[in-house]
Design brief:
The chain has helices at residues 4-33, 37-63, 83-110, 114-144, 148-174. The two termini are 29 Å apart. Helices cover 82% and strands 0% of the residues. It binds MU-OXO-diiron (FEO). MU-OXO-diiron is lined by residues 17, 20, 50, 53, 94, 97, 130.
Length: 175
């Protein structure tokens, strides 16, 4: 059974993951209106992943006798300055999510809730991957600078990446 403190902290994280999904969805929609089909495919996919992060938490809270609450929708920014600024915002956002996950892990230790602590290790690893990927993309965009041809190839790369991400998930579901 979850303690009220851990239950509250997990529900706060449900809200964070829900907002992440909305945020990436807004970025994806903006990128699509800019003709950046690869960037938008990647971000639509990322939005789905964040929804899955939220869902995983809701189910865990319910399984442990709590109640996973579906949060209200907050509107993310509608337009973005550039592709580079989108990925810089993503990196900043993921760094904040990592610190939220760390505080959550901390509260499970304070409450001696080792099963929630164990469950959260998946999120700890996921954050390492997400931050690394965002950092790698920001570095690539710094290299590209204002080169339109470079941006065209970058968009194609992200399209290919979004496709592989989809295939990887289907394979994981089959296991
Ligand atoms: Fe679910 Fe990107 O943090």
């Amino acid at each position: 059974m979850l303690s009220p403190q851990v239950s509250k902290a997990l529900n706060k994280q449900i809200e964070v993951e829900g907002f992440s999904s909305q945020y990436y969805l807004a970025m994806a929609s903006w990128a699509e209106t800019q003709g950046l089909n690869g960037v938008s495919a990647f971000l639509y996919h990322h939005a789905d992943e964040e929804r899955m992060h939220m869902l995983k938490l809701i189910k865990f809270v319910n399984e442990r006798g709590g109640h996973g609450v579906v949060p209200a929708l907050k509107q993310p920014p509608v337009t973005y300055k550039s592709v580079k600024s989108v990925f810089e915002e993503i990196l900043k956002h993921e760094m904040k999510v990592t610190s939220d996950i760390n505080s959550l892990v901390d509260s499970t230790l304070k409450e001696k809730d080792y099963s929630t602590h164990n469950f959260l290790q998946w999120y700890v690893s996921e954050q390492i991957e997400e931050e690394a990927l965002a950092r790698q993309i920001v570095d690539k965009l710094k290299l590209i600078g204002d080169d339109k041809g470079g941006l065209y190839f970058f968009d194609r790369d992200l399209e290919a990446m979004a496709k592989t991400m989809g295939t990887k998930e289907t394979e994981e579901k089959k296991k």
